[in-house]
Amino acid sequence: MLKISLSRLEELFAAIAEKQTLYIPSDRADGAAEFTKWEPGKALTQKLNTLRSAKDFFFPQTENIVDFKMEGKNIQVIDQRSEHEDFVIFGVRPCDARSFTILDKVFLSEPVDSFYKNRRDHGTVVTMACSRPAETCFCGTFGIDATEPEGDAACWSDGEDLFIKANNDKGQAFVDSISSLLEEGDTAKLDQVKAKTKEILSRLPLANLSTATFGGDTLNEHFNSEKWAELSESCLGCGTCTFVCPTCQCYDIKDFNTGNGIKRFRCWDSCMYSDFTKMAHGNPRTSQLERFRQRFMHKLVYFPANNNGEFGCVGCGRCLSKCPISMNIVKVMKALEVK
Amino acid sequence: MNNDTLIPHVGVVTDIRIDTPDVKTFRVVSPEGGKVFEHMPGQCAMLSTPGVGEAMFSITSSPTNKEFMEFSIKKCGCLTEWLHAMEVGQQITIRGPYGNAFPVDTELKGKDLLFIAGGIGLAPLRSVINYVRDKRSDYGQVQIVYGSRSKDDLVDYKEIIDEWMADPGVEVDLTIDNPQEGWDGHVGFVPNYVKELKPSTNKTVLVCGPPIMIKFTLAGLKELGFTETQVYTTMELRMKCGVGKCGRCNIGNKYVCKDGPVFRFDQLDALPDEY
Amino acid sequence: MQEAMIKRAKELLTDGSVKRVIGWKRGEFAYDITPAVFESAEELDKDFVFDDFTSANVSKYLVKESKKEGKVLVFLKPCDTYSLNQLTKEHRVDRDNIYVIGIPGGPKLDIEKIKAKGITGILSVKNDNYTLKIETLYGEETMPFSEAILDKCASCKSKKHVTYDELIGEDGDVLDSDRFDMVEKLENMTAQERYDFWREQLSKCIRCNACRNVCPACTCEKCVFDNPNSGVENKAASDSFEENMFHIIRAFHVAGRCTDCGECSRVCPQNIPLHLLNRKFIKDINSLYGEYQAGADTTSRAPLTDYTADDCEASIVHERGAE
Hints:
Number of helices of chain C: 13
Structural class of chain C: alpha/beta
Distance between the termini of chain C: 51 Å
Mean pLDDT of chain A: 92
Order of helices and strands of chain A: EHEEEEEHHEEEHEHHHHEEHHH
Helix content of chain C: 25-40%
Shape of chain C: globular
Strand content of chain A: 15-25%
Distance between the termini of chain A: 48 Å
Number of strands of chain C: 8
Low-confidence stretches of chain C: none
Shape of chain A: globular
Number of domains of chain A: 2
Oligomer: heterotrimer
Strand order of the largest sheet of chain A: 3-2-6-7-8-9-1-10
Strand content of chain C: 5-15%
Order of helices and strands of chain C: HEEHHEHEHEEEHEHHHHHHH
Largest sheet of chain C: 5 strands, mixed
């Protein structure tokens, strides 16, 4: 496989950044990792994953849809869309890489969401395999192999070298663009690293978590479970889980008066919020229990029902570490599994 | 770049008719003239006034109307209040058509049809009724049972009297909730009236109205011997994108804006009991 | 301590004095504790836990639970008792329907501090004479207990339970803490340095509302940030300054009522030190209107809703703000 020494990462990033905007996960001042635009000197984080997921690149938290100018009785529609620049996201973990496939199913299905497509078409996803999974990881439950990431091109590290392989045409174009820095390498050491990682993956506390009792046709079984009351009891309805989750995709469309016209934008929303389903004559989900249930039923039952059994979770573990009261999808799955 | 369904067209309101104290019917065309887009009966459109709000409304005119689209809108919130205060000539934004339509070219063809509506619930059904009237030979008997709080709350009253009642192929049964001076028609709630009328069970039913009316009407129909596979309705939930992506109208594995708003009752039964 | 708490809770449930117990429930790992309501002895035996990771302030759940039929038993650490007093003072809870057992306070541990050392694959955390022995998938790690303490516990202001019906363990004293040290440091910065500090910190905000939803002082049924007519309701930034306004507005809303329980910073997924904003307000209120600790009792009037002849002149506040 083609490789480059890890000591030459700075050179590699410089070469990529010369042709396209490059984003890498890097450490912030307070120690957390986040995707930032690469600049000379910026180092790749050693942390397992970024705090926020990578969905921001294709589905940003706030995005302008269209502008309006109002004059008397007339409205002028101003389409501000423009072709997005080409960019590379380097170092995406296997879980986040899978989340793009899930978001594609929503945004690229008819009618195609041009805002998402614009960004998606121009973004090259370069993934990085994991070697030190955390106790909160459970990507394996959803059929993701942390040692064989998806993405346009995939990378591995064996501690000394960075190995890289293209997975499709876009990835191949990317590898070709930096081929002068790469050389053929022996993967013996890497194979050992992969084997060791697989062994750790099998020993993870959540390795045995199974989706067997969930899926598109398990609606009635789970919807009326009495476990929801207990599970949702301490939920604050804050929405943190939705915002750090790589696959949550609910959004709101709002108008903002700039004083000089109206900007219509879309922004992330959460089905956990009390006003999510509120309308002029009532609200179908008035209790936190119902809203809590909706989020998990969507991920474990409704989404697979509409998408050939694919679940709406990638096992990244962010909700496990970020929920203020430590509720998460694992606790929900385990509670509902028990009859 | 290609069109994106979230970016709306501009429409202009060329006529405003006051139907009831809280319902007005708005006629919308493209500023260049003609309809903004085509649709099928039961479909809806997102109307908005930038800066005020955007909401989904069913298109009450039939697609066979070649000149304009009409929306019958009840005043009950921010946007609708603003729309009610509009003057003729006001532009609004409009995008659509969204949702599935009543199966007028498939399951409903050749059938005897019974329309049951309450209050503003007549609006979506009106689109089907006028479509059927314009393609009369494709359908069987047409019976319309329509009721409202009072005579002044009957929507499209003029059309009902001047056109529907005058149409020999259409039976119209009106009712109001309580006795009122100047009304010598039937008095009573719609679900009870339907039971009194004892419609034949070989009719296909389309029902729309306040949730409680639908609930009791369905119960009454079942008592009369109708099955859920014969009864259609159209649902309303808060919608934002209109295309099944933003998640707001998601119930069970369905999105009301995309898989609905028209549903058969047996399909609704399969959905979680959240509505 | 955990055993004593479970025992006492079971006693009170069995003899009918209380109908439910608010406490903490064991999770998947050593550190993911969920606040929960227990209604039976079996549930308590199975899941109730009290250890170095039970840092959540459960007093806010009383807003809902104390209104239900039957008394509710709640275990409160000293800092949590201040929150309960404040809730009582604001009539947000039915104090007569609550049975409070005061329990020892922290210091509690912050799993993020352990993870920040690069320790991952954590399977268990044991306190061995103030050295943490952490078993992980990658071998055993150790670190000093003192380096993993939650920020809010590091500047603890009081070990005194200001309200309780019964105590398990000792009661303590109000402490001389250094909680205003960082605030002073910020005050001594230039206006530009302070502005840069806060802009950097607050730019991380993702408007998840965890801070607002966990705060015991935020119990409005219709929050101003959920009200489309308020002008500040926005789920996402229309310009990045807007997120900063959320925190400034919220700090003003809780000023004088914030008991400095530290939950806001503990729950923030982006580790923004929100408590510093609130502490600044507390420090200012202390100097402008006299020393005041919200939640210390249930009868004193809050400085911002009371007037005494000793209050500083309004013009002084105005001048200071203009600096």
